[in-house]
Design brief:
- By secondary structure, this protein is of the alpha+beta class.
- It contains 4 helices and 7 strands; from the N terminus they run αββααβββββα.
- The chain has a 7-stranded antiparallel sheet with strand order 2-1-7-6-5-4-3, sandwiched between helices.
- β1 and β2 form a beta hairpin.
- α2 crosses α3.
- The longest helix has 17 residues.
- The N and C termini lie close together (11 Å).
């Protein structure tokens, strides 16, 4: 298996993701794009929102923070993913996908469509799930 960092670097190289990180479900960062940090608390909040519908509902008003930036929660599919738009911006957002052991967090900017980013993250998530990761 490739290293976690190689997976992050490959995501960014596609041009379909601006920045990305792979974290454990405990919030610990395993790998991240250069200059991009999902801190322990940010990852734990994202994981909690994915795992708990009521907690996700609270974040609709509070927002989700990634790399210190605020994102407005748009949608969270229980047990699977979270989608948020960049607060105060017309475009750009965050998509996070949970697998058995990992949390993939990706940012897309104004020139990358949400659907493009989501599709790329889902491919990696499908691979992790097939590998029981």
């Amino acid at each position: 298996m490739s290293s976690w960092q190689e997976h992050v670097d490959a995501l960014v190289r596609t041009g379909k993701v601006s920045r990305a990180a792979i974290c454990g479900l405990d919030g610990a960062t395993w790998a991240a794009s250069s200059g991009f940090q999902v801190d322990l608390n940010e990852a734990r909040v994202i994981a909690a929102a994915i795992n708990n519908k009521d907690y996700a509902a609270l974040l609709v008003s509070q927002g989700v923070y990634v790399n210190g930036d605020r994102y407005n929660l748009v949608k969270s599919d229980l047990g699977e993913n979270l989608f948020a738009k960049r607060a105060g911006h017309a475009a750009g957002g965050c998509y996070a996908r949970k697998t058995g052991q990992a949390l993939i967090v990706a940012i897309f900017n104004e020139v990358i469509s949400a659907a493009t980013c989501v599709c790329e993250i889902e491919k990696l998530a499908d691979y992790y799930i097939s590998m029981q990761l």
